[in-house]
Design brief:
This protein is of the alpha+beta class. It has two domains: 236 residues, no CATH class; 206 residues, 2-Layer Sandwich (Alpha-Beta Plaits), CATH 3.30.70.1230. The chain is 60% helix and 14% strand. It contains 17 helices and ten strands. A hairpin with a 2-residue loop joins β4 and β5. α4 runs parallel beside α7, α6 runs parallel beside α10 and α13 runs antiparallel to α14. The protein starts with a helix and ends in a 5-residue tail after the last strand.
């Protein structure tokens, strides 16, 4: 598989995760729509009880309870994970049809005579608009558009039917205002009639409902896009935060820095691990070892991040970090040395806490070298890893192993010390805990290497 194909596979996998997250939000939105539906029906029921005449309130209550019963099935389907967008659209279609009928056609159970034409003059259309607006919480622009479309079609069908009833007085405002057709008295008589049907109201209402639907759909679509970007950003931050310091995570997640390009640079590489970890593991159980490693890694990682370092990888009990990647700083070597001092102090504090608990203390070894490396992403489409490669890494690892022989917690290369000196006007203060050792043979090197080792802090 080529690099381009691997990248495409990785992006497809990321897209699948985002689609899954959006689908979950849609399901949550469906549930909110159904719950909001019950809340609205309850509010309308209370409103009817306190505002309508008793005989009307009974009819209203029956209608509202019927609508509530229609919401039981989709709730049950949602509970068992069966409620898809298509099913939800079907239920909403039934709701819109029934709501349109209730709003446009007077019920036979009403005590007084209400004509269909007079119903159109009542504010019932607002409830249909409210129903469409409520679809916005579904987080599905498709569902919003469908519900608005069905509402426009159903209301228009009802309008056409009522406008063509034999006794309907159906006119637009332009027709009514035509002086050649109607006198002022006749115009007033028509508009005040219980049989009057305003075609202009129909056109304007449908235009209004269409525009509201479109705006809501765009708003929901934009919200989904924002959620998608947020999911991608949080996912990126979660991945980056495992390796980089918080300030670097902010830069990487905002796109100011990229890890895609392979680069060659000079950086400081630091290795730290537990001395004699194999023997410790033999004396303790798996649970105790895992607890020790988690505590050790957690403390070391936080210390590295506090000093602007980047964790490259965990290798058993060892931690590999670097200073100068993914961005080169002005004081990378100095930051690495300060970090090494802080790690020694942190482990000392950790041992004091372990001693109080009656646990075995640990010893560490730290090796640091400064030199040229190659940085970039390695791996395949299923697992990408930002890596630092080169002889500098190998030597830093060898220096860490050399701490056993030299009986010191920290061993650094002469190249590293030279870089620290070049970064500071007064490097003696920072280097006061290091002493130059004799040239030493390092495994994997044909020539001896000049090293510096750590002297314990003076109390």
């Amino acid at each position: 598989m080529s690099i381009g194909e691997e990248r495409q596979a990785f992006e497809d996998n990321q897209s699948s995760r985002i689609a899954y997250a959006l689908a979950k939000e849609e399901q949550t939105g469906f549930l909110l729509v159904l719950y909001a539906r019950f809340v609205v029906l309850t509010v309308l029921l209370i409103w009817a009880i306190f505002t309508a005449r008793a005989e009307y309130a009974v009819v209203y209550a029956g209608i509202l309870f019927a609508f509530a019963a229609l919401g039981v099935l989709p709730l049950a389907m949602h509970r068992y994970g069966m409620l898809s967008t298509k099913w939800m659209a079907g239920f909403m279609t039934i709701d819109v049809i029934l709501l349109t009928i209730v709003l446009m056609v007077p019920g036979s159970m009403f005590p007084s005579t209400l004509t269909p034409q007079f119903n159109l003059q009542l504010p019932g259309f607002l409830y249909l608009c409210l129903f469409v607006v409520g679809m916005a919480v579904s987080y599905s622009p498709t569902l919003v558009l469908w519900t608005g479309f069905v509402a426009i079609v159903c209301w228009s069908i009802g309008m056409v039917w009522i406008a063509n009833l034999p006794d309907s007085l159906s006119y637009s405002f332009s027709q009514l205002l035509d002086p050649a057709r109607f006198t002022d008295e006749r115009r007033v008589e028509i508009t005040s009639s219980r049989l009057f049907v305003s075609l202009s109201h129909w056109y304007n209402r449908m235009l209004f409902l269409g525009l509201v639907t479109l705006v809501l759909a765009i708003a929901v679509w934009r919200s989904r896009r924002m959620l998608q970007r947020q999911i991608m950003a949080e996912s990126a931050r979660a991945n980056l935060s495992r390796y980089f310091s918080p300030n670097m995570v902010d830069r990487l997640s905002t796109g100011d820095t990229t890890l895609e390009d392979v680069d060659t640079r000079n950086i400081a590489v630091l290795f730290v691990d537990i001395v004699g970890f194999t023997e410790i593991a033999e004396r303790q159980g798996p649970q105790q070892i895992m607890k020790l490693l988690r505590e050790f890694h957690g403390r070391i990682a936080q210390t590295i991040f506090d000093h602007g370092g980047t964790i490259d990888k965990y290798i058993g009990d060892a931690v590999m970090a670097n200073f100068g990647s993914p961005e080169i700083g002005k004081h990378d070597a100095s930051d690495a040395l300060r970090c090494a001092y802080a790690i020694i102090d942190e482990v000392s504090q950790m041992n004091a806490e372990r001693q109080e608990k009656g646990l075995e203390e640990i010893r560490i070894g730290i090796g640091i070298h400064y030199g040229e490396v190659v940085t970039g992403n390695i791996g395949d489409s299923h697992h990408l890893e930002y890596a630092v490669l080169g002889d500098t890494v190998n030597l830093a690892s060898r220096l860490e192993r050399l701490t056993r022989k030299l009986q010191s917690q920290l061993v650094v290369s002469d190249e590293f010390v030279t870089k620290v000196k070049s970064e500071n006007d007064n490097p003696e203060q920072l280097l006061r805990h290091l002493i130059e050792d004799e040239r030493t043979k390092v495994r994997g090197r044909s020539q001896q290497v000049s090293v510096w080792k750590f002297l314990p802090f003076q109390t």
